[in-house]
Amino acid sequence: MQFCTDCGGVLNLFGNNTSSLCSSCIQHRKEPLPPKAVSPKQDDDVLADSILCVENGKIILRSKEGWQLWSASVESKTELASVMKAAKLIYTIRKRRKKKK
Fold first, then answer.
1. 2, 19, 35, 50: which sits with the fewest CB atoms below 10 Å from its CB?
2. What CA–CA distance (Å, rounded) separates 36 from 30?
3. Spatial CA neighbour of 70 closest among 51, 97, 96, 48
4. How many helices (DSSP H) and strands (DSSP E) are in the chain?
5. pLDDT tens across 44-99, in order?
6. Residue 87 in 3-state DSSP?
7. If you ran DSSP here, which 8-state letter would residue 6 be given?
8. Burial of 87 (C-beta count, 10 Å sphere; 0-12/13-18/19+)
């Protein structure tokens, strides 16, 4: 004798059943939605189009729109992760301000 794994009702008195759910549970059960494809946000790839240059003793990172996203003196040492984090933050703020205008 087999029982439904969901409600505990009898599945089959004799023989084998290929499903572990009864017909009632199968009808009422919602199928899980397929996972959504995660597409990268447009702003996540902002650094791919950015330009890094040296001007007046400063290292400057500019977006393709010409916005200054980050700068530091040539002598300073900065972790790349913090530069990227700051640049993305500044880019999102400037883009938000541009949309409001």
1. 35
2. 17
3. 51
4. 2, 5
5. 577 788 999 999 999 999 999 999 999 999 999 989 889 999 999 999 899 888 87
6. helix
7. T
8. buried
